[in-house]
Amino acid sequence: MQTETKENPNYAVVAAVQLPSVTDLEFNASLNELRELAKTLGYTVVKTFIQKRAGFDMKAYLGIGKQQEIREYVNHETAVEADQHNFEINTLLVDHEISPSQARNLELEVGCIVMDRTMVILEIFHRNARSRAAKAQVEIARLGYMAPRLREAAKLAGSQGRQRSGEGGRGAGESQTELDKRKIRDRIAELQLEIVAMEAERKTQSARRHGQQNSTSVALVGYTNAGKSTLMRALTGSEVLVANKLFATLDTTVRALHPESVPRVLVSDTVGFIKNLPHGLVASFKSTLDEALDAALLLHVIDASDPGFERQLEVTNEVLDDIGANVVPRIKIFNKFDFVGDETAQAECEAALKAKYPDCIVMSARRPDDVAKLHQIIVTFFQQDLIEAELFLPWTAQQHRGEIYANCQVLEEHSDEAGAYFKVRGEVNVVNKLREKLN
């Protein structure tokens, strides 16, 4: 058997129950997503076990026969399984959220650690959170997930928790599990207060950023791994993290559109969406989309090469509606079009998408020409309310020349003995402020 080292990956198997109400397409999409989540967490998935049942087994999620099959594979209990792999499998990943008792019983039956879908996502969020707000929100979700599992953990360790006598000898006191649960409740309350304070601070900073810098903003939204970070880097020329992993980053990244335009546009990349997001993470997930509420334009990025993109599109729309972002103008971006197929397949797919979503954009973030077209569409959107005006700059006020070029698009410039004359395009309030300053 292979000995695990830092160079050797952690090996895992995946198991899932397909209920009669779940189509094969939905089921396979969810399984693929779990395998991608496992990859993000550092696991190599070596086998997937599927069971079709009318309902989940109340005791251990999977039926007895499937439990035995997994145990034999994981523990090399048959000659066939021993020949199939010579590495150690230490984790079973389950594509549903299961109860603490189901997880405990399943671990005892198959002989390895069991992580349900919720635990996998929580662990990824925990590892990737960077900002104070993201860390606090993820900690709340993890604590909420852990609380009901403390008693099962105590059972697995062969203990129900030590008893501590009550004060002055009165009462039976609290078990260690009850003490731990109380600490969790207190910590959650403390974190919630911190989040309220951070939210007020974030709104102040956002208002200052949008007010003082005279900038408008675009927010990228959509499913994780749809290519949002690649598109972000292409639009801004910045070294944003681009990794072929789900939830490579959880914190919103804000960069200026490049080449810069008038008005100056800020582009933000929000956290990616995912199917069956754990209930405890819904609030923290939505809070990371506040940039979408601040934005003047949303770019809804969709993976055109994903056969299940329509369901992803629906989920994204539902969440955006929930947070009140349905009033923000939105452009659908069908990305990763270079992965759709050959030229014939791409032409057919583009025609179908344009017919169903007339105002959509079909592109690849890796094609410079496509990115340039999108850049122009964004600039045109923000320039539609600009005005053209004449500004006069006396020779005695040349120190303001830089402000004109920084805040307006200069269409023409000429000069005489009195000073310089500019024909500019800019926002009404910006032009008026400049005119007051120069006169």
Concise account of the structure shown:
By secondary structure, this protein is α/β, with parallel strands linked by helices. Helix content is 46%, strand content 19%. The chain has helices at 24-40, 64-74, 79-84, 100-110, 117-128, 132-146, 150-156, 176-212, 228-236, 279-287, 290-294, 309-322, 343-356, 368-383, 401-407, 428-438; strands at residues 10-18, 43-52, 89-94, 113-116, 215-222, 253-256, 264-269, 297-303, 330-335, 361-362, 387-394, 409-415, 419-426.
Provide keyphrases for this structure.
elongated, 16 helices, 4 domains, 6-stranded mixed β-sheet, 4-stranded parallel β-sheet, Rossmann fold, 439 residues, alpha/beta
Description:
The chain has four domains: 10-124, Rossmann fold, CATH 3.40.50; 129-163 and 174-212; 214-383, Rossmann fold (3-Layer(aba) Sandwich); 387-438. Helices cover 46% and strands 19% of the residues. It is built from 16 helices and 13 strands. A six-stranded mixed beta sheet has the order 6-7-5-8-9-10, sandwiched between helices. The chain has a four-stranded parallel beta sheet with strand order 2-1-3-4, sandwiched between helices. Helix 1 links the parallel strand 1 (10-18) and strand 2 (43-52).
Shape from CA axes? Answer: elongated
| Secondary structure: helix percent | 40-55%
- Give the SSE string: EHEHHEHEHHHHEHEEHHEHEHEHEHEEH
Our count of domains comes out at 4
Instruction: Give the N-to-C terminal Cα separation.
Output: 83 Å
Mean pLDDT rating: 83
Number of DSSP-assigned strands: 13
The named CATH superfamily of the largest domain: P-loop containing nucleotide triphosphate hydrolases
Report the CATH C-level class of the largest domain.
Alpha Beta
Sheet of most strands: 6 strands, mixed
The order of strands across the largest sheet is: 6-7-5-8-9-10
Q: Strand pairing plus helix content: what structural class?
A: alpha/beta
CATH fold name of the largest domain, please? Answer: Rossmann fold
Which ranges are low-confidence, i.e. pLDDT below 50, for 5 or more consecutive residues? Answer: 1-7, 159-172
